[in-house]
Design goal:
The structure is a homodimer of 254-residue chains.
Chain A lengths: L21 H10 L13 H11 L11 E6 L2 H10 L4 H4 L3 E7 L3 H14 L6 H15 L6 H14 L11 H25 L3 E5 L4 H7 L7 E9 L19 E3 L1
């Protein structure tokens, strides 16, 4: 059984793109800051949910959606989660806490779902079916103890001598990077969405990931990407002006 | 010598947040699709640059800005890069190609820059100075062959028995994840910015990262996060409706 997102979240036609006031968007990006102290104002549940839904519209690798977002509402779990975020004010004063999880092994289940969905349509191109049937397991299955990945790495080395070829993923370590990247794309969507809705956020990485995994009953292969807190910034919520080094350090025209 | 971003990219005051029309933002997120075929319309250079500058305003870990964006303009390099993206239409038909690079070792240089900057101010809190002076190297330095990371891992294990403690990074593999996450946050900013400015994008990961690193003279420790192509979508540019599995699979209220 495959369910796809409800219609209102789908683009009605691929060809029609809306006119957008870019200045409203720029305001979102520019006013997003990591907020360390929140005030008492609550976020309506429907806004949190909408922001989470917008997070799921981020770009993601092979559309395998290797992510999950745990919206921690239970008082008991929240109390523990704050401790596992080392009791930092960005967690302690937050109205909402969301644990963003990267799932390196989700490709298995979601590949099947994609295939079921594709096969239920009459007009699916052969290349797409082939991609999920053959290429996805070839790329993402690293085998028991990474043995398949090891042999792939050797095969890739020899193939690469004569032509360009994708080099990763060939290990579980690569799979972690793969899922973490996809999840981080959604995390930025989430933080921007909160800002667009009038709220603030803080991404936290200095956290006890092992305890959080246990708290949420996550599987061994699941990885904590970050914990995102949200609320409305207090007057002392932002620690100083934004600092970025000169852009020439980071934008290289070659 | 520390340079910070030019004034217009800084928030004038931490306290004032602008009113934002959230619907304009939602249009950006909803209309962003991975575009596989672009038309012939060029993107003005100033728009590309502005989008790249907005990418650099993404959240990032400890403000260590462990990223770089190579905007490939030279015809010769572009031709090669297209081959290294396996000649896929999203690269071949693109107006612009940007290689997004995660830099796990950038913490060393950027930590120094942060310290110089902080010390040049009179009002820097002791905790911030201490963070960049002591905590950052403790957290990010894994030592020669990861030896420091190994001993940290053991120390963390024993300390974790009595209290919550950050578990990562304790290896170069963890440092890759660390920098890749930060870079992916900026990548999502970049793709959304292109959309807000009326253009489209495609993130590519099925690429020959080893050849791209050589092409751009990157150091061994640098990691290719993804290549992002940009342009205006052709009428056949989006391959079908967006597919997302049911949101309950990904948003868990606990």
């Amino acid at each position: 059984m495959v369910d796809i997102f409800k219609d209102e979240l789908q683009v009605p036609s691929e060809e029609i793109v809306p006119n957008i006031d870019r200045n409203e968007f720029i305001k979102v990006i520019e006013s997003r800051r990591s907020v360390r102290v929140y005030n008492d104002q609550k976020i309506p549940e429907k806004d949190v949910l909408h922001c989470l839904e917008l997070a799921l519209l981020a770009a993601n690798s092979s559309n395998l959606q290797a992510w999950a977002f745990y919206w921690v509402k239970s008082d008991e779990k929240k109390k523990k989660l704050i401790q596992y975020c080392l009791n930092q004010p960005a967690a302690r004063t937050a109205q909402e806490l969301i644990v963003c999880v990267a799932k390196p092994m989700a490709w298995k289940e979601n590949r099947k779902k994609m295939l079921e969905l594709i096969n239920s349509k009459n007009n699916a191109p052969e290349a797409v079916i082939n991609y999920y049937k053959k290429i996805v397991p070839l790329a993402y299955d690293q085998g028991f103890l990474g043995i398949k990945g090891f042999f792939k790495k050797i095969a890739i080395f020899f193939l690469s001598l004569s032509r360009p070829i994708p080099r990763e993923p060939v290990s579980f370590s690569d799979m972690k990077v793969w899922a973490q990247k996809t999840t981080a794309l959604a995390c930025q969507n989430l933080m921007l969405s909160f800002r667009a809705f009038g709220y603030d956020s803080c991404p936290m990485e200095g956290i006890d990931s092992a305890r959080i995994k246990k708290l949420l009953n996550l599987s061994k292969s699941d990885q904590i990407c970050m914990v995102i807190s949200a609320g409305k910034r207090a007057s002392n919520g932002v620690y100083g002006k934004r600092i970025r080094f000169k852009k020439e350090n980071f934008i290289k025209k070659v």
